Structures are given as C-alpha cells and as structure tokens.
Amino acid sequence: MEFREIYCYNCKKVLGKYNIKYYNDDKVNDMIKSNYGSHVRQGHEIRISKVSTKS
Ligand SMILES: [Zn+2]
Alpha-carbon distance 7 to 17, whole Å? Predict the structure, then answer.
C-alpha cells in the first residue's frame, strides 16, 4: 500500500499518514490546513512524501 506521509521538520515527527487510494493531493492539503494548521502558522516546514509498505 502507498501512503502520503506528512512530516514536520521542525517537530521532527510524522504528523499523519494517508492512504493514497483515498487521499489525493488536494485532500491531503486540506487535511494539513484543518489538522496541522498550527504547525504552518508557526512557520514549520512540512513535507509530504510518498511511502509504501508491503502488505
Ligand atoms: Zn511542527
């Protein structure tokens, strides 16, 4: 399965993982705004990367 992983460089942690099947770029961006907006407002650097897991 493939996921989009949301990582905050400032907090040095993964904020969330979203299955690529159900979350396209737009949806993930919406998630970041609604769930992780506090990081963005504090100027944190957030990266979205594609990760895959063997299932
Ligand atoms: Zn952060």
Answer: 9
